[in-house]
Amino acid sequence: MPLRHTRGFKSAQHLSDHFKAHGLRLGLGTEKEYGEFADAFLRGSCPQGAQKFRRLWKDDLVPYDESSNVFAVLDAKGFIKTCYLPDPLRTLDDDELGLFPCGEGEGMGYQCPVCGFLEMPYPPEDYNICPCCGTEFGYHDFSRTHSSLRRIWIDAGCRWFSSAMQLPAGWNPFLQLLKAGLAEIRLHVSADAQAMGVGPATLIRTASENVGTIAA
């Protein structure tokens, strides 16, 4: 929805997911507040001393205010891509802001390289967020590998992230990871079970839902 200075986020899902990922750290309590804050920062309240760049790969406006540590991206069409407080462990410099890895969605069908979700509405790049695992590409994977982000997601219980996209019927995060080739099942058979002749093959046939633990 168009805002005062920009065209807002590309979709209600983009707004919802980015608010969920960054809103609380910015001290904002609602999606509306987050959208208005990003809009004002990009074209209105961004301090005069803030650094502003044009992305080399795309004609994005990329302001960064060092005093408040706020970073945002506006694409050439006037849509907000993201707005957040950078991770304290990251250092934003001219090279990063100008050469950051670089649309509007073209329908479902992009696969997330972190969790294997097959129905990302936008490519896993350019600050798009996976509705399944919540990875924001260009932010979370700047200083972490996809495998380490996958491990974090698994350790946290493989929770569905998006509030805007409905949880798919029958969704199973473990089968999703397995089908994508991003994880394997490691079986744990006790010594007593082995002595009784119960091995992995027997366990798979008799209790396929509890054959072991998922491992990235």
How would you characterize the overall build of this protein?
The chain has 7 helices and 6 strands, in the order ααββββαααβααβ. The protein has 216 residues and is an alpha+beta fold. It folds into 3 domains: 1-98, Nuclear Transport Factor 2, Chain: A, CATH 3.10.450; 105-170, no CATH class; 183-215, no CATH class. The strands form 2 sheets. It has a 4-stranded antiparallel sheet. A two-stranded antiparallel sheet has the order 5-6. The two termini are 39 Å apart. The model is unreliable at 94-108 and 202-213 (pLDDT under 50).
The first-level CATH class of the largest domain is given as Alpha Beta
CATH topology of the largest domain: Nuclear Transport Factor 2, Chain: A
The fraction of residues in strands falls at 5-15%
The figure for the number of domains is 3
Helix content: 25-40%
Extended strand count? 6
Characterize the largest beta sheet: strand count, sense, and whether it forms a barrel.
4 strands, antiparallel
Order of helices and strands: HHEEEEHHHEHHE
Low-confidence stretches: 94-108, 202-213
Number of helices: 7
CATH architectural name of the largest domain? Roll
Q: Provide the gyration radius in Å.
A: 21 Å
For the biggest β-sheet, the strand order reads 1-2-3-4
Structural class: alpha+beta
| Shape by Cα distribution | elongated
Give the distance, in angstroms, between the N- and C-terminal Cα atoms. 39 Å
Mean pLDDT: 77
